[in-house]
Design goal:
The complex is a heterodimer of chains A (112) and B (110). Chain A is mostly beta strands and 112 residues long. Chain A has strands spanning 9-13, 18-23, 31-38, 45-50, 55-56, 61-64, 70-75, 84-92, 106-111. Chain A contains no helices and nine strands. The N and C termini of chain A lie far apart (37 Å). Helices cover 0% and strands 52% of the residues of chain B. The N and C termini of chain B lie far apart (36 Å). The chains are: A mainly beta (112), B mainly beta (110).
Chain lengths: 112, 110
Amino acid sequence: DAKTTQPPSMDCAEGRAANLPCNHSTISGNEYVYWYRQIHSQGPQYIIHGLKNNETNEMASLIITEDRKSSTLILPHATLRDTAVYYCIVRASIGNTGKLIFGQGTTLQVKP
Amino acid sequence: NAGVTQTPKFQVLKTGQSMTLQCAQDMNHEYMSWYRQDPGMGLRLIHYSVGAGITDQGEVPNGYNVSRSTTEDFPLRLLSAAPSQTSVYFCASRAYNEQFFGPGTRLTVL
């Protein structure tokens, strides 16, 4: 599975959009980009995933560059409850055991 | 659905003691896994299972045993606890694209 690189921390003002970047320059063609978050001391929570098209759900949007070497998770209107560690993970979905390899993630601090 | 449940929530052991961390899911997921998380670090995969009777090692399997006799349960056994195993342990089960995590077990080994 490809390795990812994320900034260790970011701040965002409440009500503003939070844009969390992820670099995955060694991603291969069958690998998906997944985002999870972990709110203090809780188990990680799935947010969104995508292959090459932009994706949106009720929680967030995922923008993947055309060359697929990087992506951005967008929380459109961040709230204090979005303060968490956000993990960008790349793995193959088809024919894969489902292992998730977590990096250090980005600690997002949403400030009032 | 209860989702993924873990027991106990907290546990203190002495070095050399053994114990089993319990994990159960009621979503009929084939894939289950165990992670540990140390302070300031991401999660590291210990063991995983792709179905009843099938288990395999993850990144940090040493000191831990698992078995999978049913789809619902995936216990993690520490045969002889060591202080280095002090950590928070998360169990997870997976649907096609989404992994569901339990609330965690906080283990301290003295």
